[in-house]
Design brief:
alpha+beta, D-Maltodextrin-Binding Protein, domain 2, 8 helices, 18 strands, binds 2,5-anhydro-1,6-di-O-phosphono-D-mannitol, binds magnesium ion
Length: about 325
């Protein structure tokens, strides 16, 4: 068969990557198939969001005190179900559940998956893009060496793999297992995620910053100066703003087109709004793998030691030039 006519599916791609790791059992690829299956089911539901009785809140609040949308509840159940069926998944944790699920203790159950099943779901009612984020960690193979709580609370640099699925004008899975960032677009005719963006590299400099500017008065001075500097042309061009308010969509644009995405500390959220373990960590992992950076103040997001699974963090992530300028603003404000 001619190379030009072939397509590479996500499954083929991960199996090829696995072959580079001697001794890989295939259980990791099987785990990933739980994510692809669950997100295909979620996207099918999201695509029908204006039909039937899928819109609106489910009449409950989640652990963050936020109203749960019907699609949040559905997406969470789907992720828990299909990942829970994988023998290699020992622990699952979700934005929608206060406590993690400690599922299995067998030697095979060596992975932890932490996810936000439907980030940005308050946007669903107005047909704006939403996404699923996930972070995969490893626990010791030997059940006697395990400590469930400690195994769960690992810093982001220990992620084995991470990614997101964006339910946008097309459905796209963006993923890294530490060998670069690769994007797969769901071909609805085939029902498979097809490699469409191999080895994504962030532009060193973009032209947009992405932040909820309504809170700018309560940002710390370094963040205020950073945004003012981008707007006034300190990096050689005057930046424009783009903010959807749906993290996966804002990050996806930043990853492909460059620029910077940030959610600084604010008066309402002094530690930032986004959740470290299932929002900031997957994003930071992808940004770094694509040649960018992700910081919480001066600290690398991936080096932050989590204290709880639902802890929040501030984040600034983007291309090399913008991030250098952010660090300069931190120096000048101190
Ligand atoms: P969610 O997990 O409740 O959906 O909230 C997270 C969302 C992100 O997608 C987005 O970046 C952020 O909240 C937007 O917050 P704000 O409306 O304060 O700008
Ligand atoms: Mg979320």
């Amino acid at each position: 068969m001619e190379r030009d006519n072939t397509v590479i599916t996500f499954e083929q791609h991960t199996l090829l990557q696995q072959r580079r790791h001697p001794g890989a059992s295939g259980s990791f690829a099987w785990l990933l198939s739980g994510i692809t299956l669950a997100t295909k089911i979620i996207q099918a539901k999201v695509r029908r969001a204006g039909l039937g009785d899928l819109l609106g809140d489910a009449g409950a609040t989640n652990v963050q005190g936020e109203t749960q949308q019907k699609l949040d509840v559905f997406s969470n159940q789907v992720m828990l179900h299909y990942l829970g069926l994988r023998d290699s998944v020992g622990i699952l944790a979700s934005e929608e559940n206060e406590e993690p699920f400690f599922l299995k203790q067998s030697a095979d159950a060596k992975y932890i998956v932490i996810f936000d099943p439907l980030d940005g779901s308050s946007n669903i009612d107005v047909n704006v893009s939403v996404g699923t984020t996930f972070s995969i960690l490893r626990r010791p193979n030997d059940p006697h060496e395990r400590d469930d709580a400690l195994d769960l609370l690992q810093p982001g640099y220990k992620q084995v793999a991470a990614g997101y699925v964006l339910y946008g004008s097309s459905t796209m899975l963006v993923y890294s297992a530490g060998d670069g960032v690769h994007g797969f677009t769901l071909d609805p005719a085939v029902g498979a995620y097809i490699l469409s963006h191999e080895n994504i590299r962030m532009p060193e400099q973009g032209k947009w910053y992405s932040v909820n500017e309504a809170h700018v008065d309560s940002f710390p001075p370094a963040y205020q100066n950073f945004i003012a500097g981008l707007r006034s042309g300190k990096l050689g061009k005057k930046y424009a703003s783009r903010y959807i308010g749906s993290m996966v969509a804002d990050v996806h644009r930043t990853l492909l087109k460059g620029g910077v995405f940030l959610y600084p500390p604010t008066a309402d959220n002094p530690r930032g709004k986004l959740r470290l373990m299932y929002e900031a960590n997957p994003i930071a992992f992808l940004m770094e793998q694509a040649g960018g950076k992700a910081l919480c103040g001066r600290q690398r997001v991936l080096e932050m030691q989590p204290e709880t699974i639902h802890q929040r963090t501030a984040i600034v992530c983007g291309g090399r030039r913008e991030m250098e300028f952010f660090e300069q603003c931190l120096d000048e404000a101190s």
